[in-house]
């Protein structure tokens, strides 16, 4: 029985409502967070629009605060509103209530750890891409955006205390893992699957936008591959918690690695493991292991239907 023009039979209407809802909630939450930040951080609007906002160390706490609320406004809240609109039950719509066996989480850990060198290797190949001379303006923009992204990332990751590590894990690993999976896999993947009537396009298209929204070209194909992997994990497991966990493992590995590097416990080279040809044989072994793990997940896809 059709509830409204926003059910699964009308994916284009759902997509339009998704965009409107996400942007509206983002604006509202961002404004609220800024109003709260003014007395807490002792700032004004001029501070928020300052060119040095991203580069001054004293502003890192403010930036993390703003990113937290922006992530909640764009990724966490809208999927629950949309799930209610689209089906009447957000928990069921987002596949938060699918029962799971613990071995799936163990399998995800193996898949994600062994895929890290593969992702880094793909990112290294991606960074070698250069546009022709007549597209120099595009190349310059990409280089500038990439440098800004790298500067911000390094500033966010530069912590050497346990408290800073926990804060980064929450802001960079927990919240994005929940929110981005709820929106891109929980909502958009379903919309594009219904629209194209093809599960593979339903996975590929949201994964493309998932990567694009990070606004960093030199890691685009690596993140696209991650998004595709998360999409298939959702389809094969039937639960949003599996891609959420996979996303968390990926992000938390980076957060912990940077923390140990800042503490002097690990070499900086660990962050780029797999990106050089010297360890290509090990990267190939990791491809085999992670691929086999994904194959096992695929084989177990029917268990939830029994």
Order of helices and strands: HHHHHHHHHHH
- How many helices does DSSP assign? 11
The secondary-structure class comes to mainly alpha
Kindly report the average pLDDT value: 87
Low-pLDDT residue intervals, each spanning 5 or more residues: none
Q: Strand share of the residues?
A: under 5%
Tell me, briefly, the overall form.
globular
**The number of domains:** 2
Please give the radius of gyration in angstroms.
20 Å
Largest sheet: none
Counted beta strands: 0
User: Considering DSSP H and I runs of 4 or more, what fraction of the residues is helical?
Assistant: over 70%
Span between termini: 26 Å
Briefly, what is this?
This protein has eleven helices and no strands. The protein folds into two domains: 1-93, no CATH class; 97-305, no CATH class.
How would you portray this structure in words?
This protein has 11 helices and no strands. The protein is mainly α. It folds into 2 domains: 1-93, no CATH class; 97-305, no CATH class. Helix 1 packs antiparallel against helix 3. The radius of gyration is 20 Å and the shape is globular.
């Amino acid at each position: 029985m059709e509830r409204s023009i926003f059910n699964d039979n009308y994916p284009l209407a759902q997509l339009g409502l998704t965009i409107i809802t996400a942007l509206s909630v983002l604006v509202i939450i961002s404004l609220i967070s800024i109003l709260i930040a003014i007395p807490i951080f002792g700032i004004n609007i001029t501070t928020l629009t300052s060119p040095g906002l991203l580069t001054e160390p004293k502003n890192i706490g403010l930036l993390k605060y703003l990113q937290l609320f922006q992530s909640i406004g764009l990724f966490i809240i809208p999927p629950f509103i949309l799930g209610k609109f689209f089906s009447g039950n957000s928990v069921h719509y987002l596949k938060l209530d699918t029962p799971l066996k613990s071995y799936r989480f163990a399998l995800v850990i193996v898949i994600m750890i062994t895929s890290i060198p593969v992702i880094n290797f793909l990112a290294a190949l991606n960074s070698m891409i250069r546009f022709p001379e007549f597209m120099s303006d595009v190349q310059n923009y990409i280089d500038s955006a990439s440098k800004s992204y790298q500067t911000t990332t390094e500033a966010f990751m530069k912590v050497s205390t346990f408290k800073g590590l926990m804060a980064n894990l929450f802001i960079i690993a927990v919240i994005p893992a929940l929110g981005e999976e709820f929106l891109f896999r929980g909502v958009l993947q379903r919309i594009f699957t219904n629209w194209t009537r093809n599960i593979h396009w339903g996975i590929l298209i949201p994964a493309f936008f998932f990567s694009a929204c990070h606004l960093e070209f030199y890691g685009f194909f690596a993140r696209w591959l991650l998004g595709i992997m998360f999409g298939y994990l959702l389809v094969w497991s039937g639960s949003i918690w599996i891609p959420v966990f996979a996303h968390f493992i990926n992000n938390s590995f980076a957060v912990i690695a940077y923390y140990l590097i800042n503490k002097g416990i690990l070499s900086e080279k660990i962050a780029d493991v797999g990106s050089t040809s010297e360890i290509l044989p090990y990267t190939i072994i990791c491809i085999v292991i992670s691929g086999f793990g994904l194959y096992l997940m695929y084989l177990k896809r029917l268990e939830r239907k029994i």
